[in-house]
Design a protein that fits this description.
By secondary structure, the protein is an alpha/beta fold. Helices cover 48% and strands 13% of the residues. The chain has a five-stranded parallel beta sheet with strand order 2-1-3-4-5, with helices on both faces. It has a four-stranded parallel beta sheet with strand order 7-6-8-9, with helices on both faces. Strand 8, helix 11 and strand 9 form a beta-alpha-beta unit.
Length: 341
Amino acid sequence: MKNKFLDDCYNAIKDQPAAISRTLDPVNRPSTLNGIINAPRIFLIGAGDSYIVSLFGSLAFTQLGLNAHAYEVVDALQIPFRKGDALIAISASGRSTQLIQTVKRAVKADIEIYGLTENPKGALSEIVDNLWLTQAHPRTFDISPSSTTTSALALLMLLIDEFSRIEYSKHVGYTQILEQNTNNILKWSESWGKRTANEIKTKNVIYFLGIGPTCITAMLGMMKIHEYAVAKGIAMHMEEFAHHTKLIVNKREPVILLPLKYSCRDEYFKMLTKDIRQILQADLFVVQQPSIDYMYYDFLESIFLIFPLQFLAYYIAKSHEPPILGWRAPHVTAFKIYKDI
């Protein structure tokens, strides 16, 4: 019998080039940026995948010289908003209960609020000043989300382009590079994910190690693994792994290393890979994308690195017996994380 859940997950992964293009279409692009650029403080909030998206935006905006901070939605309840602040609330479904509570508090503080969502009819869309819509068009939110997450990242990449142009009179065009290369990267990613899933010897624990913005990728890889409820993932910064994890990594456990391309030849990377293989005797898998003829931007590279991890999670789940028949939702129902549950 055909497994509709896994098919829907796979289709969401494969649709990402089209979803990103739809999201970046000029008719969908945000036109209200002054409230963010001129804000003394920018807060990005979200939960689940959307929290990881907020971390991505915060780190990228900070590198542009903006005063940006990312908060998980519950922690955001404690933010003392002040006049002039800007809030970017991120929720693909637009129905995160705690996020809606924080946004309502921000409304009372009379600050500029931006909603980044897939759902134009969700509760979030009704209470924000400016609405930014992704165009992933998922059939359901009750799958392992792929296209909604990367579409939100693409929209933030568009803001990075715009900030660069306004602040530095320079339009870098990262979103153009993203659109032009996503199809080819996705084809390579499926091959890598399928092959690596077959090579992984245990499904107990998979370590995902990143550096800088690829730490964000590592966290999304961990979440993809968890959403299929087959294996467990641990996401860490490479340096934290070196400091704290050596004594608990078991022989032949898989370690997925997500280096930035420029760092693959430095001594730190060589030392790390050697120690993982020889001292820990773990199974090391280094995700190195095919070369593209342009200079990489770290945050663009971190988006491209998400695709092979999505396929890895999918193919590990696909090999699982008995087959996965649907989305496991014990946390969703137990903790009432969505407004309509």
